[in-house]
Structures are given as C-alpha cells and as structure tokens.
Design a protein that fits this description.
Largest sheet: 6 strands, mixed
Pfam families: ABC_tran
Order of helices and strands: HEEEHEEHEHHHEHEHEEH
GO cellular component, one term: plasma membrane
Protein name: ABC transporter ATP-binding protein
Bound molecules: adenosine-5'-triphosphate
Strand order of the largest sheet: 6-7-8-3-9-10
Keywords: ATP-binding, Nucleotide-binding, Transport
CATH superfamily of one domain: P-loop containing nucleotide triphosphate hydrolases
Radius of gyration: 18 Å
GO molecular function: ATP binding; ATP hydrolysis activity; transmembrane transporter activity
Shape: globular
Distance between the termini: 23 Å
CATH architecture of one domain: 3-Layer(aba) Sandwich
Length: 246
C-alpha cells in the first residue's frame, strides 16, 4: 500500500489490488510494473497520455486480460490466476464494464440489452425485463426501451450501457472513456448518472479518462506514465485531498 492509500483509507483493505503488473503485446510494453488499489465505494480516475497503458490496466483488473507478471486480487482472491470459468462468473456477477462506444448488442432493444446480464445470471425473463425497465427509468432512457442501439443518440446508448453494467448490482464498475464519444452535455449526464448510482449502491468505479472534467467526478486520481502508476503525481492528489479536508 502506498503512503497515499494509508492516509486516505487508514486500516482499510482494498477491494481490488494490483501489484507489479506487466503486460507486453509483441515488442510493445503496455504495462511495466503498475500497482494500484481500488477501495470499496471509491471512484478512482486513471489518466495518462495515449498509449500509456490505461486500457490494458483496466482489462487486467477486470479479468479480461491476464498480465504477464504481477498480481491482481479481488477480495483477497488472486484473479490473475483464476480459471476462465471463475473469471466469467465474476464478470457476470461482481464486475460491470462500460466502454467508450457502449458495445451494446445491435440486434437487441435497449430493454433486452439491459435484461441480458440478469438472464445470464439465471434470473427469469419476466423479472429481468421488469428490473431492466426500472434501470432505464433511473437513467432517463425508459422512453427508448424498444429502440435498438442504432436508433439512439450516443448519450442515450451510453446511459443504456451504464444501466447494463449496473443492473446486476456489481461491486466494481470499470469504465473506459465512458464519455469519450459524447459532447459535453451528454458527457455530464452520463457521469452524473454513473457517480450518483455508484455512491448510492457503494459501487467502486475505476474510471479511465484523459478529460480533466470527467476526472473531476472522481474521489482520487492517479496518472499512468509509460505503463507505471506515477506515485509522485498520486502524492499531489493526496496533498490536495488533505487540504480539502483540513
Ligand atoms: N491488443 C493489443 N495488441 C497489440 N498491442 C496492444 C494491444 N492493446 C494495447 N496495445 C499496445 O499497448 C500500449 C498501451 O495501450 P493501451 O490501449 O493500454 O493504452 P491507453 O493508455 O489506454 O491508450 P489510449 O488512451 O490511446 O486508449 C500501446 O502501445 C498499444 O499499442
């Protein structure tokens, strides 16, 4: 645990920890020893220049990509070593993911897209659809329930994607540039919806962004530089947090 985490979260065990993560794609080193803690209920922004390894870090933490070296734990469980079956289970129940371009299933309506994670988790069709409708309502897109992704605006699609990521009540949500393709008003609506819901449910959010306005929604911000989390930059954030508190 870095000094910054000690100060911000005294005595608290992180929900997800990454230690010394390395990942190379051919000759490109995407991660070169990245370490990070994500605490329960915390909204953590990861910023950094293009190619600094932000998406790769998110993929490793969410169990989508296996690191070449280092460890990722979730609630104490080593998920970098978990079976594909266990990772699939975690992605269905404990983790939610939102990408820059929603990645909704184009053939399904907004309602069916949001109901899908519940069906995959074994919930029956009727209750799944009812709950999906409630989540669309919550994100202000109930009126789009019967539309397919191609018939919605970018902001509407992203709010549907958020509903899909949160509908199962995950412990952690991984959002990779969730507002990157939106204008500023739609971006604000998406971030407000995400932050409000995460706070209410106590969901941890790992938010990747290169936009300072989006990062400002987070409790804490870390910088990734050349595949390593920049501890110096993190310390600045801690000083700022201490100033705000004191
Ligand atoms: N699937 C892949 N195959 C090959 N190289 C990859 C792959 N994914 C990432 N890389 C490389 O790893 C490095 C880090 O990429 P990554 O996408 O993690 O960075 P990023 O900070 O998210 O970038 P951006 O802000 O542009 O999305 C880059 O050099 C990239 O080209």
């Amino acid at each position: 645990m870095s000094p910054s985490d000690e100060q911000l979260f005294p005595g608290e065990t992180a929900l997800i920890t990454a230690r010394g993560l390395k990942k190379a794609y051919g000759r490109a080193d995407a991660l070169r020893g990245a370490s990070l803690d994500l605490h329960a209920g915390e909204i953590l922004a990861v910023t950094g220049t293009s190619g600094s390894g932000k998406s790769t870090l998110l993929h490793c933490l969410a169990g989508i990509v296996r690191p070449d070296d280092g460890s990722v734990t979730y609630g104490g469980e080593r998920i970098d070593r978990a079976s594909e079956e266990r990772l699939g289970e975690l992605r269905r129940t404990d983790f939610g993911v939102v990408f820059q371009f929603g990645q909704l299933i184009p053939e399904l309506t907004a309602l069916d897209n949001v109901a899908l994670p519940l069906l995959l988790a074994g919930v029956r069709r009727g209750p799944s659809q009812q709950k999906a409708g409630e989540w669309l309502e919550r994100f202000g897109v109930r009126g789009q329930a019967d539309l397919r992704p191609g018939e919605m605006s970018g902001g509407q699609s992203q709010r549907v994607a958020l509903a899909r990521a949160l509908v199962t009540g995950p412990k952690a949500v991984f959002a990779d540039e969730p507002t990157g393709a939106l204008d500023s008003l739609a971006g604000e609506q998406v971030m407000t919806a995400l932050v409000h819901t995460a706070r209410e449910a106590g969901t941890a959010v790992l938010l990747i962004t290169h936009d300072a306005r989006t990062a400002a929604y987070a409790d804490r911000e870390v910088w990734l530089r050349d595949g390593v989390v920049d501890a110096g930059a993190d310390a600045v954030t801690v000083q700022e947090a201490a100033r705000h508190e004191g």
